[in-house]
Amino acid sequence: MIVVISLLLVLTGYSFLQKSSFFFLQNQTKEPIKFGATYMTMNNPFFEVVNDEIENEIKQRGDVLYTMDPALSVDKQIEHIQRLIQMDIDVLFVNPIDNTKLHDVLEECRKKGIIVIAVDTNLDSNDYVSYTVTSDNYLAGVLAAQDMMTQKESANIVLLEHSQTASGSSRIQGFVDTIESHPEYKIVARKECEGQLENAMPCIFSILNEDISFDVIMALNDPSALGAMAALEDYGREDVLVYGVDGTPETKVLIKDGKMRATSAQFPIQMGQKAIEIAYQLLEKKPLKTNETKISVTLITSENINDFSLAGWQ
């Protein structure tokens, strides 16, 4: 009897080892899931942070991420997405340069069964995306305008824009709508800068050279706000309230030092984490209650700057 029981234990143990080995080998030999990502430009630390969060989770799971930088070229972004399709990706994270011009290439993704997740910027139609993760971009502009009206009884305002992008347009629209019924706040100039520091500087230089009177700048993001600040510094202008959107470490230092008024802070770490969380849920065919996450924004000013780290992103 003892011999029989011992034999059964040995066989059971052998069977368990066989199954464990099978599952171990199966896990070791599984094909990695392929992810692709294309942001409007990697010349913006915001997208680097979003991408890092996505990549960290992908690497931990043994999968792979291919990241493309179209450098603000719609044609390049379309070309990059086509290349990613040829690489047999399973999921595409897309931050559209122009939210109206990717229909055809995203339709190719749909036909191939590729999951498409829009990040930071909406597309003009949900027909081409599985999910969208953005900040509340409209609110970012509203908060800046509301703060400005507490600081000034009237103002001449310069807008730094990137009208081609949905996120940039929403921020500026939120600002414009908030002051619309207040004629004492006047928009005296609007300049397209593509959200780039190196473009924002000459925009402000040109306004200064035209001798246009202004005392507020609303910039669609922090890089363009930093460009504006650099131009103002060259002209010795310390009387201008400058607003941005992002919450970069650099702008938080300027706010702390009293050189910049405020930034509507985004949360790129949370955005990246949410995007990759949703991607794996969609891959596992888990049901979702909604097809969009809109992450709120917070206005950082000199009054609450001590609540935020100056060293990194929130």
UniProtKB/TrEMBL annotation:
Limits of the Periplasmic binding protein domain: 40-286
Lineage per the UniProt record: Bacteria, Bacillati, Bacillota, Erysipelotrichia, Erysipelotrichales
Species the sequence originates in: Floccifex porci
Listed name of the protein: Sugar ABC transporter substrate-binding protein
Family: Belongs to the bacterial solute-binding protein 2 family.
A GO term, aspect molecular function: carbohydrate binding
Keywords, comma-separated and alphabetical: Signal
Domain of life from the UniProt record: Bacteria
InterPro entries found in the cross-reference section: Peripla_BP_I, SBP_2_dom
One Pfam entry name: Peripla_BP_4
Location within or outside the cell: Cell envelope
One annotated Gene Ontology cellular component of this protein: cell envelope
